[in-house]
Hints:
By secondary structure, the chain is α/β, with parallel strands linked by helices. Among the domains are: 127-173, no CATH class; 177-274, 2-Layer Sandwich (Nucleotidyltransferase, domain 5), CATH 3.30.420; 278-336. The chain is built from 11 helices and 7 strands. The protein is elongated.
Amino acid sequence: MSDLTTPVASSAVAGSAERSVDESLAQELVERARSEGVELVGPAGLLTGLTKTVLETALEAELDEHLGYPKHAVEGRNTGNSRNGTRAKTVLTEVGEVELEVPRDRDGSFEPKIVRKRQRRMSGVDELVISLAAKGLTTGEIAAHLADVYGAEVSKDTISRITEAVVEELTAWQSRPLDSVYPVVFIDAIHVKIRDGKVVNRPVYTVVGVTVSGERDILGLWVGDGGEGPKYWHQVLSEILNRGTVDVCIVVCDGLRGLPEAIADVWPQAIVQTCVLHLIRNSFRYASKADWAELARDLRPVYSAPTEAAAKTALDELAGKWGERYPAIIRLWQNA
């Protein structure tokens, strides 16, 4: 038994030791930076220097692979291509602007992947800008934030181009062709804070389709204002129809105003199934909190019944026990 557990234990000890060394090194660097008055980010920051070292080392490794030999190696003589010094380049990263010395080759065939030719921003910067824009910051506020925190000068036009590229990708995704048939489609909403002059809570309706192979596919996202009706839902479902989905077998949704009618109009053969979770939640709205636990136990036989007859029997028993106190709950389940 000890022979079997020893390798595992040794691996765990080695991993723990490696983490301890990494943490000690990081702590030493931070303490040294503090003692010397060095900032973590910014033009002369600790992280900026580390980022410069890592990127330049990676670029040198890429050039080694491209040429087929390491720097100063004798096998590189008279091979037809060799190193040709470096060129200065400023790249905007998540820790601010970094001055790089990018290695070159004589015939100009080196195409680095870590920092591509003519690339001025690392991908993490685009993600940071998009995240700030999603939180409702204007282009001016994002530019000011990058300047204050990272010491990086990013123009409003650059920020606009970054966000517009995301909008273009989102538009292409939102209009992509869909499967012709989805056995099941779920329609539900999440409430998020959206800045439209002021920050307000808005529902974002998510339509998720289950493909014939059993995979889930997000068909699209639509922002509402809380007062959606038949016209709104007919427009949403017609858009899905026009993108290629000609039939849906079952649509699972809450009883949103005008939605069942729109489903019947766009996909006449579809079965509208009220979401059980929404039914349970809505039931609790009509009941005293003191009765929630007992009511939940009595509702379970209704929605977990193996047959329609068993469900009706369980619903009759529920009505007999709770109908006088909470008639709205019984009507809710009967209508569903």
